[in-house]
Amino acid sequence: MRTHQTRVECSLSDIAQLLSGVVQGSGIGPLMFLLYINELIGILEGHGITVKVFADDVKMYLRVVNDVDVKQLQSAIDDLLSWAELWQLGISVDKCCVLNLGNAGISANLTIHNETLPIVPNTRDLGIIITSSLSPNSPSLHINDIVSRGHKRAMLIYRTFESRDVNLLVRAYKTYVKLCPPSLSKSSFACSNSSVGTQKKGFLGHDSKTLP
After folding, report:
1. Pair 150, 177: CB distance under 8 Å
2. What is the pTM of this model?
3. 64: number of Cβ within 10 Å
4. Beta bridge partner(s), residue 201
5. What's the pLDDT tens digit per position in 155-197?
6. pLDDT tens column, 87-108
7. Which one, of 78, 34, 39, 73, lies nearest residue 56 by Cα?
8. For the chain, how big is the Rg over CA atoms in Å?
9. Which are the contacts of 140, defined by CB distance < 8 A and separation ≥ 6?
10. What is the C-alpha to C-alpha distance for residues 33 and 55, in angstroms, rounded to an integer?
11. I need a labelling partner for 175 at 20 to 30 A (CA). Which of 16, 77, 139, 152 fits?
């Protein structure tokens, strides 16, 4: 049985037993998590589903041409839920959606816990906005989103700092906008239609007033 204890300066918390999960911040944590979630990939691929995993984000791909394919994808989702319940993991249903790539001839009504997943025209995947059409204009949607977020952050800095010293504002801009969090700093890219085709993609995916 694994145990966990937290230390704050010279004080120690009571010892707690760890029944499941991986301790965050540990050196071996990433490897343990990979071992923990690797079983899920094999389960989903057993349904003929293409699976992409990044940390705890799971994407499932399948080319859908008839109702049999829809049932195949739903069966994989059901096994995902069974696996998650077995290992006491929660599925964020509000973050799940279905993205049809290309011209979808069949409407796939997929559910999680009897809740129908929304079919969306675009979604954010690891900080990048992906559209259903994968048209040449798709990157512009992502770029506009980044520009909008950067502009809001810059205006927040301008309203927060009372000083109008140019050097101070430039330093704040470089710290909080130019060197921004991953959600703003991810580079834009264009997807190639030939690399994706007409698959169906199911995504079962502060500000501070002081400078450092």
Report:
1. yes
2. 0.59
3. 21
4. 61, 99
5. 888 888 888 888 888 888 887 776 554 444 443 333 333 333 2
6. 888 888 888 888 888 776 667 7
7. 34
8. 22
9. none
10. 8
11. 139
